[in-house]
Each structure stands twice: as C-alpha cells, then as structure tokens.
C-alpha cells in the first residue's frame, strides 16, 4: 500500500500539515545531489541499497540497519548509486506537537538525541534491529488502516523512547571514516565554517591538501554533486533562514551575510534554486503565518 502523505512542498522547503508523517519502505528513486531542509525533525531508516548521505558537515556511507536522526533545518541530501535500489522508511514529526503529550522532563529526554547529538547515525543489529523494525511495521499497520491519531502517536512515542534508550551513551561515540569519505568530511566542515567568505576551489583544495582536479572528481564521486553546487546550496539555505527569521534585514544584507558578493548573482541563484525571488519567498513565508 502506498504511504499516506501529510506533507507538501512550499518554495523549496517541505512542510507538514499533520503532526507527523510516515513513509514505510519507500523505494521511489530520488535525484542525487539535491539538498533540502525542513522545519521538523526526521527519523530515517535505511533498509537496502547503496547510498551516501550528507547532513550538514557530516557524511555517512549507509548500510542496511542504519538509523539517522535529523533536526531537519540542517541542509541534507542522499547520493544514491546509479540504478541501485534505495529503500528507506522515514518519519517526520513536529516536536511541538509531541510535547503536548508528555511531561516536560520526558519530552526533553525524548528530544535530546535530535538536539544534543546533532544529526546522528546509529547502526542497528540483531535484536535491536528486529525490535525497531517491529515498531515500524506496527506504525505502518496503524497508518494504513486509518487508526485514530492517538494510537499512531503512542507508537511514535514508543519509537522515540527506543531511540532515546540507544542514545544514552552515544555522546562520547566517534564516527570513523574511510579515506575518501574523510576527505569529503573535511571539505564539508571547511565549507560550513567559511561559506560566508569568498571561497575558491584552490583554497578549498588547499585546506584538505588535495589538488583541485582530484578534489572535484572525488567530491562528485562521493556526493553526486559538485563542490560549488554544494557551496551555493549552503549559502542559499542560509539566506532562506535569514529571510524567514530576520524580516528586518534587507535582501542586500541577506545576500552579503549568506556569502554572496553581488546582489544580481544572489537573486539569480536564489530564483534558480528556490523557484522564487528572495522578496517573493519572504512574502510567501510571512503570508503563511496570517
């Protein structure tokens, strides 16, 4: 059965119009290298296929049983190997709505993995993997049969309790990366720290001690996109947040704060990537609140 969707897309950013949304074993192909963000939290479970996932300044080569916890606003995208299967289950949820069901202490404990671990991967194996997949199967059954929201919400809270238990000692956990992924991790970290500056490919390559040619080839191989498409995606995402959160800033001020040097270039890139001018994007976001 097709997953029930309670989500749409507004101006390049996914929006929920229900408290949470669940897609079970979705195998729909996705374009690689397409970065996105959204104002809600995400639980992503990888069933099978070949996928490298970029979340902010982190990069994960996924394997079956991997669970990703995301706060949503961080720029992220999957890079799927050509012609490979990409089977995943995804929960999106509004943390504010979850908070209405719980006492403050319990609410804080369940959200801590998403807020303190900052876009984190857990690899599930054995009984833990079986238990988590069992929770998803039950949530899918409730969703597909149109069960009351209260029952589905209790299953989501059960899932979050399971995740919180797994993460109690995760703060001290350190990811290790193969050499290629380690280089790309360093590039993404450098861009995250410097996207607002006037970057060149030579400067980025120098920061990780690689040649420009090798860096360009390696970045495309691992992520499915180019170095500067990633840089521009990061800058545009920052501009979207500034337009949304700081209505007092002019478009020119947002342009410079996001790392662009010329307003015309910024406006052209924004329209190309978001589908609206910066002014229209800000106005549409403000009108959605009224």
TrEMBL record:
This protein's name: AraC-type DNA-binding protein
Recorded superkingdom: Bacteria
Domain (HTH araC/xylS-type) ranges: 185-284
SUPFAM superfamilies per UniProt: Homeodomain-like, Regulatory protein AraC
Signal peptide region: none
PROSITE patterns: HTH_ARAC_FAMILY_1, HTH_ARAC_FAMILY_2
Keywords (A to Z) from UniProt: DNA-binding, Transcription, Transcription regulation
InterPro entries named in the record: AraC-bd (IPR003313), Homeodomain-like_sf (IPR009057), HTH-like (IPR037923), HTH_AraC (IPR018060), HTH_AraC-typ_CS (IPR018062), RmlC-like_jellyroll (IPR014710), Tscrpt_reg_AraC-type_HTH (IPR020449)
Gene Ontology MF annotations: DNA-binding transcription factor activity; sequence-specific DNA binding
Keyword Transcription: yes
Gene3D superfamilies (UniProt xref): Homeodomain-like, Jelly Rolls
